[in-house]
Design brief:
The complex is a heterodimer of chains A (112) and B (117). With 112 residues, chain A is mainly beta. Chain A is 0% helix and 54% strand. Chain A is built from no helices and 11 strands. In chain A, the strands form 2 sheets. In chain A, strands 2, 4, 5, 6, 9, 10 and 11 form a 7-stranded mixed sheet that branches. Chain B is built from no helices and 12 strands. Chain B is mainly β. The radius of gyration of chain B is 14 Å and the shape is globular. The chains are: A mainly beta (112), B mainly beta (117). The A-B interface holds A 4, 31, 33, 35, 42-45, 48, 50, 55-56, 58, 90, 92, 94, 96-106, 108 and B 36, 41-46, 49, 90, 92, 99-110.
C-alpha cells in the first residue's frame, strides 16, 4: 500500500505570494492532519480534516487554510506569505478520527 | 492543555552503547503516547505507541518505551545503538477525549541523536 504523498516536495516563493500544498492520504484513510515544522517552534498542529469537515484547528492566523475533498485528498493554502512561513509542512493521514497517524515526507517551503 | 517536554536537545552515544531518551508529558487523563523518528529531510516514522495495557511497549528497530504514570514519563530505550539510529526523535501526546481524535498530536521539541563509531 502506498504511503502518504505530498506535492510538491520543494517550493520557493516570495513574500506576499500565496501557495497551495497537496496531500494524498493512504488509500482508505479518511482523516488528514497538517503540521508545520520550524527550527524555532518545532512541530505545530495546523488543522485536521475528516469527511471533508475541519475537526480541529491549531493556533495559526487565518492566512492558513485547508480543505479536504470527497476522495480524502487534502490541500492547505497559505496566503500573503511571510518570511516566517518558511518551514517543512507535514501531512499525516489516519483511518479515522481515532486512527494511528502516518506521516508523509513533507513539503519544504522557502519564502524569500 | 497537553504538553510534552524532551529535556535533552542533543545526545551523543557510541555505537553499541545503550540509549535512553527522556520524555515527560502533561495531560489531564491517560494519554495516547508516541515516539517518532525523523531523518534529515524526511517525514516522521512511527517507532512505537502506547494506548493502554502493558506499560512496556516494543517498537520497530529494537526500540522500547515504558509508560510511567506516576512520573508522567514515556522514555525511549534501546540496548545497543547502531550508527543508522542517528536522527532526531520526537515524543508526542494525543488527546483522549470523547469524540476528539488523536490526529491532533502535541510534540516535544525533539532530541537529536549523534552516534560515534
Amino acid at each position: 500500500k502506498a504511503g502518504v504523498t505530498q506535492t510538491p516536495r520543494y517550493l520557493i516563493k516570495t513574500r506576499g505570494q500565496q501557495v497551495t500544498l497537496s496531500c494524498s492520504p493512504i488509500s482508505g484513510h479518511r482523516s488528514v492532519s497538517w503540521y508545520q515544522q520550524t527550527p524555532g517552534q518545532g512541530l505545530q498542529f495546523l488543522f485536521e480534516y475528516f469527511s471533508e469537515t475541519q475537526r480541529n484547528k491549531g493556533n495559526f492566523p487565518g492566512r492558513f487554510s485547508g480543505r479536504q475533498f470527497s476522495n480524502s485528498r487534502s490541500e492547505m493554502n497559505v496566503s500573503t506569505l511571510e518570511l516566517g512561513d518558511s518551514a517543512l509542512y507535514l501531512c499525516a493521514s489516519s483511518l479515522g478520527l481515532a486512527g494511528l497517524p502516518f506521516f508523509g515526507p513533507g513539503t519544504r517551503l522557502t519564502v524569500l | 492543555a497537553q504538553s510534552v517536554t524532551q529535556p535533552d536537545i542533543h545526545i551523543t552515544v557510541s555505537e553499541g552503547a545503550s540509549l535512553e531518551l527522556r520524555c515527560n508529558y502533561s495531560y489531564g487523563a491517560t494519554p495516547y503516547l508516541f515516539w517518532y523518528v525523523q531523518s534529515p529531510g524526511q517525514g516522521l516514522q512511527l517507532l512505537l505507541k502506547y494506548f493502554s495495557g502493558d506499560t512496556l511497549v516494543q517498537g520497530i528497530k529494537g526500540f522500547e518505551a515504558e509508560f510511567k504514570r506516576s512520573q508522567s514519563s514515556f522514555n525511549l530505550r534501546k540496548p545497543s545503538v547502531h550508527w543508522s539510529d542517528a536522527a532526531e526523535y520526537f515524543c508526542a501526546v494525543g488527546a483522549r477525549a470523547g469524540g476528539t481524535s488523536y490526529g491532533k498530536l502535541t510534540f516535544g521539541q525533539g532530541t537529536i541523536l549523534t552516534v560515534h563509531p
